[in-house]
Amino acid sequence: FGSRLVLARLVVGVFVSHPSTTNPSQKVTMGRMYGKGKGIARSALPYKRTPPTWVKMKPEDVTDHICKLAKKGLTPSQIGVTLRDSFGVPQVRGITGAKILRILKGNGLAPSLPEDLYFLIKKAVSMRKHLDKNRK
């Protein structure tokens, strides 16, 4: 993932050195402009890897839904959000034993570019377009 970030920074033409890389003993935490929060909250996966008892979908059904959503053009993260919100699937890996991207690769539906690299390139292109349009 680090090489992708460097690639994206090179595409944009900007390389920013992070303050924590200059002095490793000094830890930098980002704060909010209008609040006291430091932004360290995140979700945690459950310790048990078995699917919950309330999930009634079979692994074949989940795989079929993943393939249908991929054929509509959704990215793997959008597929995960749709399965969570619409079908009540908490974790695809807990039910099927494989991650969404691995299921897509197995069925020949994987995207040609990785999702994170695609969005970094998309952001770099839009930033370059903005700089070309708004040059002083």
Q: What report would you give on this structure?
A:
This protein has 7 helices and no strands. With about 140 residues, the protein is an all-alpha fold. α1 (about 1-10) runs parallel beside α7 and α3 crosses α4. The longest helix has 19 residues, at about 115-135. The chain is flat, with a radius of gyration of 20 Å. It starts with a helix and ends with a helix. Mean pLDDT is about 85; it is low at about 15-20.
Shape, principal axes of CA atoms? flat
Total strands: the figure is 0
Report the structural category.
mainly alpha
Main sheet properties: none
Following the backbone from N to C, one meets helices and strands in this order, namely: HHHHHHH
Terminal Cα separation, in Å?
Answer: 34 Å
What proportion strand?
under 5%
Helical run tally: 7
In helices, the fraction of residues equals 40-55%
Radius of gyration, whole Å: 20 Å
Residue stretches low in confidence (pLDDT < 50, at least 5 long) are 14-20
The overall pLDDT, averaged over residues, is 84
